[in-house]
Amino acid sequence: MGSQAAAPLSSSFFSSLSLVALNSSQPSKLFRQPIIPFFSVHANATSSLKSTSYHNLKLRRLKTRAALDEKDQTLSTSFLVQEEQELQTQTDPEVEESVKVLKNAAKTRKVPVAEVLSALSVIEKANVDPSTFLDTLGGSASPGRTWMLIFTAQKKLKSGKYFPLTAVQRFDAAGKRIENGVYFGSLGCLTFEGRFTWKKRILAFIFERIRVKIGLLNPLEINLGQKDDREPSTKDPFFIWFYIDEEIAVARGRSGGTAFWVRCRRITA
Description:
It is built from 7 helices and 10 strands. The chain is α+β, with helices and mostly antiparallel strands.
C-alpha cells in the first residue's frame, strides 16, 4: 500500500485524536516500545547548566555596574534586584528537588503518583525563566529533538498516572514543526505532523496530516485539509511550558491537564 491521500476530515474529530497520547487510559505492556533516554549522555547536564547560568549572571552584573554611572543608580538597583529574583527562581531548592523526583520517575516509573503530582505542582508555581526553553526543546537544527511522554495528570493535578504506551513527540525549533506519535512496536504506529508557533512559553500547533503504518506495509497518509498558512494561535491546541532542561520537560495542555516528558532518541517507524 503506497502513500495515499484521503479527503479532509472533521477538525473536531482530529483535534481529539491528535491528543490521543495524553488521554489514553488503556495500559498495555505489549505496545510499549523500548526507547533509549539521554540520561547516560546528559547525566551532568543540569549541574553544568546551573554553573554556567550563575557564572553568566555574575558577568552580567559586573558589566552592569561598570556601564552605569552614579546618575543611574536607581536603574542599576532595579536591574540587579530583577537578576537576583531570577537567580533565586533558578536555584530554588524546592524546584531542584522536584526536578530530581521527576527524573527518578522517568528512569524507574516507580515514584509514587502523589510525589510526582506534588513535584509538578511545585514546578508549575515556580515561574522558571522560559528564555531557553524553545532551543532546549527543539534543538538548533532540523529534524529537532524527540521526547517520550512519561506521566499525565488531570486538570488541577487532582490525579495522574504513568502513561502506558510509547508516545513520542518531536519538536523542530528551526523548522517550527511538530510531530506526535504513538508507537505499537512491530504492529505499527500512528503519527500526526504539523507546524507550531512559540510565544514566551506557549507553543500553539496545527496538525496538517496523519500517517498510519501497519506492520511492514507502506504508511497511509491522510491530509487534514489545513491548506491555509495561518499562524497557529491559542484558539488551536497548545502547550504552556513550565520547565525544560536537557533531560525532562513539563507542560500543561489546553484542556488543563499537565504532563512531563523525558528526552529520548528518535524512533524510525
